[in-house]
Design brief:
The structure holds 2 protein chains of 2 kinds.
Chain A (H helix, E strand, L loop, with lengths): L2 H19 L6 H10 L3 H5 L6 E5 L4 H14 L4 E3 L7 H11 L10 E5 L5 H7 L4 E4 L7 H4 L2 H13 L6 E5 L3 H4 L9 E6 L25 E8 L2 E6 L11 E9 L3 E8 L2 E7 L4 H16 L4 H9 L9 E5 L2 E5 L5 H11 L6 E6 L25 E7 L3 H9 L7 E3 L2 H10 L6 E6 L1 H13 L10
Parallel strand pairs in A: 1-3, 1-4, 2-3, 4-5, 5-6, 6-9, 13-17, 14-15, 14-17, 15-16
Antiparallel strand pairs in A: 7-8, 9-10, 10-11, 12-13
Helix pairs in contact in A: 1-2, 2-5, 4-10, 4-11
Chain B lengths: L1 E7 L10 H12 L4 E7 L12 E4 L6 H22 L3 E5 L1 H6 L2 E3 L5 E3 L6 E18 L7 E14 L7 E5 L9 E2 L1 E3 L2 E4 L5 H4 L1 H12 L14 H14 L3
Parallel strand pairs in B: 1-2, 1-3, 3-4, 4-12, 5-7
Antiparallel strand pairs in B: 5-6, 7-8, 7-9, 9-10, 11-12
Classes of the chains: A alpha/beta, B alpha/beta.
Chain lengths: 458, 244
């Protein structure tokens, strides 16, 4: 064994333990140490696993990976998942390093890795993944990469050089993602939705790829599911949405409680009923089912897994707090927020809401995006709303211009949250929408109060 | 009293929350019982310069620049020059600002022609200028400090017919070199300030509304609004912009 790498692995393992002693749920630091000691750590760690599955896209990485995880679990397959949230290089290394034995064993686990959009090339340069799932591409944290087009170009260049053996799973309904399938050496599987009744009237404001990627003319949509996702074609050059191999039809969205759908695959059709809500979770489910089928897992095992599936950490999670419920959902970009609003605020019932916005690096330093969210759709559907975070005033102002009155704004997140849930009636649900760092703060607070498990222990 | 807004290329040129500026103008008029019409002006559509008082032209992705430049020259150029003669106000941000200047010179040294309503030109830079920005506005603007967020790689330089909107206090501004930010010439204004800038700089927003309405009603003055929340947001943005 390579001594440099062994040192890296041992140092990282020691650091990991001590961080946990202090009660911090971070996974990045051990990986950082390992990456520093041996920059090829990921390449060497890949010898410890059988297949590598990468999941990327702007929204739904965690949930999609979690569904794949449940299916793997149900099929008694050993796997390592970077569940603890860090999807940058050091987070991936951190997860693998702490969950693999010091020396490779005969029975190697699968590595299930959710990967930051721009970290994908670095990961692919050090590993040869069996499967890559790409769900969508939306405007998100533009202060990091400037433009969404930059990310698409990075993906094009990265995927072009994949081995023939890598299966690429793409959303057929997102023109920026579907187009990545052109000219790849290996097998491409498309997934999508076939259900007209959930079409919006037109493209929402927060749509990013509405021009044809081949020729630049405006795409024509006859169905829009969200953002620029739907059934499109280019009238000039003939580019059109690829026909999905795996698709959902007869969808029944049941507000925040979940959805039912019929899934059609080349292996047969089946119905699923889940506790994860919204059209975006139909896409996450489809991505996961496609990955499972690519791994030759039987439909039976997939169906079983869906019966017991719990929502992923923090993305959508319900926690009981003193006779009330907190529904937590990360809201960090316009399309993600728009879809949450559509899922939760379009029914008959008026809701209680809490929104926390920070502007640290992990949240995105630019809060302009709040004005690309269609908060106007919440008008008349909100019983009370509280705002918090470093940018509470920005959020408050955004709601003022949507004619929504804010109950109170306090930049201290835990104080504001406590006051909000104290002020809703027993048995009611407070819908909590934080950006990334407020989500961590809220999770920590709730776990200290004893309302939820320590969030890395699962 | 009525204000008609022409929103140029709302699909291609509105990536960074810039539509908040249109919403800000809309609501701040509505709260004063001024009726507002918003006309979305898309690709291939023509403009009637007599009917529009205020134009908004936001920022998009770099790939949209060529398509929009072609469309501007083919369908909108004469009407926008006429609009300036008729004292309409044109407010532009980022990509929109660049296209109101004379040209945008890309890395490959080709020139994307702008309209030349502003005496300015832009050259592609190799470093993207991203971050909070605060400027000290020139004395014609009633808002002393204007705060926003910039995200651009183009470097803009002003000619002698345009004056800067202000002087950079925090951030890069037009080009990261001469500490100027934005440009003004006649009733045409351009800048790199996202945020959206008008929502969190309400005096600047009202200045633009008054300018646009004075086209038909000379010396028109707006009623005051309760701007305590706008001011608080302005202050927060300034405070956060000191945070690297």
């Amino acid at each position: 064994m390579d001594p440099r790498f062994l040192t890296a692995k041992l140092s990282a393992s020691i650091l990991k333990t001590s961080l946990r002693l202090f009660g911090r749920g971070a996974t990045a630091a051990p990986g950082l140490v390992a990456e520093y000691i041996d920059p090829n750590s990921l390449k060497k760690l890949s010898q410890y696993v059988s297949d590598i599955i990468l999941v990327t896209g702007t929204n739904g990485k965690t949930t999609t990976a979690r569904i794949i995880g449940s299916i793997l679990e149900n099929s008694n397959k050993k796997f390592i998942h970077n569940r603890e949230g860090s999807n940058l290089m050091r987070g991936l290394i951190g997860s693998l390093i702490s969950k693999t034995p010091i020396f490779p064993s005969n029975e190697k686990p699968i590595a299930l890795l959710e990967v930051d959009e721009v970290t994908l090339p670095k990961v692919i340069s050090q590993t040869s993944p069996s499967i890559i799932v790409i769900n969508n591409l939306f405007r998100d944290q533009l202060d990091r990469y400037g433009e969404v087009e930059t990310i698409r170009k990075i993906w094009v260049n990265t995927l072009r050089n994949l081995d023939e053996s890598t299966i690429v799973i793409l959303n057929s309904d997102d023109p920026s993602v579907a187009h990545l399938g052109n000219g790849l050496r290996g097998r491409v599987i498309y997934f999508g939705i076939e259900d007209k009744k959930y079409s919006l009237e037109g493209l929402p404001h927060a749509s990013d790829f509405t021009s044809c990627i081949e020729c630049g003319s405006e795409l024509k949509y006859d169905i829009v599911y969200m953002s620029h996702i739907g059934r499109y074609k280019c009238q000039k050059c003939g580019l059109r949405r690829p026909k999905p191999d795996i698709f959902a039809e007869k969808i029944d969205l049941r507000d925040e409680t979940g959805f039912k759908a019929r899934i059609s695959t080349p292996e047969g059709k089946f119905d699923i009923k889940t506790s994860i809500p919204g059209l975006y979770n139909v896409y996450n489910s489809l991505g996961a089912i496609s990955a499972a089928l690519a791994l030759n897992i039987s439909l039976q095992k997939i169906i079983q897994a869906f019966k017991g599936f719990e929502a992923a950490f923090g993305r959508t999670e319900v926690i009981d707090v003193a006779g009330k419920k907190l529904f937590l959902a990360l809201a960090k970009n316009p399309t993600g927020f728009n879809e949450l609003i559509r899922t939760i605020f379009t029914g008959r019932k008026k809701r209680y809401a809490f929104i926390a916005v920070n502007d640290l690096i992990a949240d995105g330093k630019d809060v302009s995006w709040l004005w690309d969210v269609d908060f106007e759709l919440m008008k008349g559907k909100v019983e009370k709303v509280w705002v918090s975070g470093m940018r509470a005033t920005d959020m408050n102002l955004r709601l003022k211009y949507a004619d929504i009155k804010v109950e109170g704004y306090n930049s201290n997140i835990t104080q504001a949250l406590e006051s909000a849930y104290t002020n809703i009636p027993q048995g009611e649900t407070l819908f909590v929408f934080p950006t990334y760092t407020p989500m961590l703060e809220i999770k920590k607070f709730l776990s200290e109060k004893g309302y939820s498990e320590r969030f890395w222990e699962d | 009293m009525k204000l008609t807004i022409g929103w140029l290329y709302p699909k291609q040129m509105s990536t960074y929350g810039d539509r908040g500026n249109v919403l800000t103008i809309f609501k701040r008029c509505e709260w004063r019982n001024i009726k507002v019409d918003v006309l979305e002006i898309d690709l291939k559509e023509r403009i009637d310069p007599k009917s529009i008082d205020f134009y908004f032209f936001g920022g998009g992705q770099d790939v949209a620049q060529v398509e929009v430049s072609n469309d501007l020259h083919k369908y909108k150029k004469e009407a926008l020059f006429e609009a300036v003669k008729l004292k309409a106000t044109i407010f532009s941000i980022c990509g929109g600002y660049q296209l109101l200047g004379k040209y945008y010179k890309t890395f490959e040294s080709s020139e994307i022609p702008g309209l030349g309503l502003l005496d300015a030109f832009t050259v592609a830079g190799d470093k993207r200028m991203i971050g909070n920005i605060m400027i000290e506005a020139n004395s014609s603007i009633p808002e002393k400090n204007i705060v926003g967020f910039e995200n651009h790689s183009g470097k803009t330089y002003l000619g002698k017919n345009a004056v800067a909107l202000g002087r950079v206090v925090i951030g890069n501004g037009n080009n990261g070199e001469d500490r100027t930010e934005g440009a003004m010439q006649d009733n045409v204004i351009g800048c790199y300030l996202h945020g959206p800038v008008l929502a969190k700089n309400p005096k600047f927003a009202d200045y633009l509304i008054e300018k646009a309405l004075s086209r038909k009603n000379k010396d028109f003055k707006l009623k005051k609004l309760d701007d305590s929340l706008e001011k608080a947001t302005h202050e927060t943005a300034i405070e956060r912009s000191h945070n690297p």
